[in-house]
Amino acid sequence: MVDRLVRLRSVCSPTNSFDSFRSTHLRIGDVISLYAPDSRGENNNICGHEGFLSTLGLVDERCVVVEGHGNLQSPPETFRDCLFRICPINRYSAQKQLWMEQKRLQYSNSNSSSDSFIDEEMLIRVEIAAEKEREQNRNDYTKMLGNIVQYGSSIQLLHVKSDKYLTMQKNSPARQERNAMRVYLDKLGNEGSWFLLSLLTNMFLWEIM
């Protein structure tokens, strides 16, 4: 029994776990967590927040890093709030056109425009195109499931618990760090949900396209 525990301890040691991680490829469909290391300099002149990227509940769509809420050695009890699934990027051209047509039809109805009937016909056609686009996105995910994620490729991150996409809003700063962009969860996602995987020295760098 003791020998078995010793062998189990050697297999699960941090060194072996790290070596196993280095030899494992990241693939489409994998579930990951994002951990932000402390970015403060030697003089503590840069505001840093260390911790897991997490949500504030199903109602609040913000994503934040809460200091003191778990670390790499001791994950938080609500670790499920920190899990994201790697997905290929979705197409949004038809859905973007649908959003624009919906706004235009709403404006036409509020102004009693005579072209509202034509707008409704256009809306139906765009809705069909948007549904086909969403179906194509689902098919692409099925086809690419298990593919290796390489540097330079673009992905989306689907929050496992809420089934919403991690999204950045370019023109909206974060609440605490005003030099950073606001990060939130979006049900359908948009072009702000596209992330480019780059290599920066020995660290992963997630960039918005």
Automatic annotation (TrEMBL):
One of its GO terms (molecular function) is inositol 1,4,5-trisphosphate-gated calcium channel activity. This is MIR domain-containing protein. It comes from Meloidogyne enterolobii (Root-knot nematode worm). Gene3D superfamilies: 2.80.10.50. InterPro entries: Ins145_P3_rcpt, MIR_dom_sf, MIR_motif, Ryanodine_IP3_receptor. Residues 146-199 form the MIR domain. Pfam families: Ins145_P3_rec. GO terms for biological process: release of sequestered calcium ion into cytosol. PROSITE patterns: MIR. Keywords: Repeat. It comes from the Eukaryota. One of its GO terms (cellular component) is plasma membrane.
